User: Fold this.
Amino acid sequence: MQVYDETNTKINEMNSQDKMVNGSAWMTGGSILSRVVGVLYIIRIVINGEVVDAVSASTFGAFVRALFSALYLLFVIWRKKS
Assistant:
């Protein structure tokens, strides 16, 4: 939606869908970050593992989550088109 002020200058205004997408992106990023930190803590402190093991496990977990998110996004786009 384009909104103009009294001097005919375009004002950027986010509609509700844009706000929801923006909030979802921040929530997804925060969720991935918290899981990475959680896996690092569990492997490093609780199991007394090496730093390399903790980082590789959390990186793999973040990759799987990102892959699933991308596949789900493609499914949603495909479903909207049909």
